[in-house]
Amino acid sequence: xxxxxxxxxxxxxxxxxxxxxxxxxxxxxxxxxxxxxxxxxxxxxxxxxxxxxxxxxxxxxxxxxxxxxxxxxxxxxx
Length: 78
Known about the structure:
Elements: E1 11-15, H1 24-32, E2 40-44, H2 54-67
Parallel strand pairs: 1-2
């Protein structure tokens, strides 16, 4: 049985993220991984057409990382 709540996954895959109406599933996985030393959370998707989707927000954030315009905090270098 599928549930969108998990206790502590080591690996999670979010597929077709452009179809998600909100980031609840992603955030549930991310929160559940908090107790893991080396968790792996992957998202795979095509871009989709919804400019208000969590996928679009994530894609914009990834573009900023790739072009060097993503803000880096002093403690992130460690």
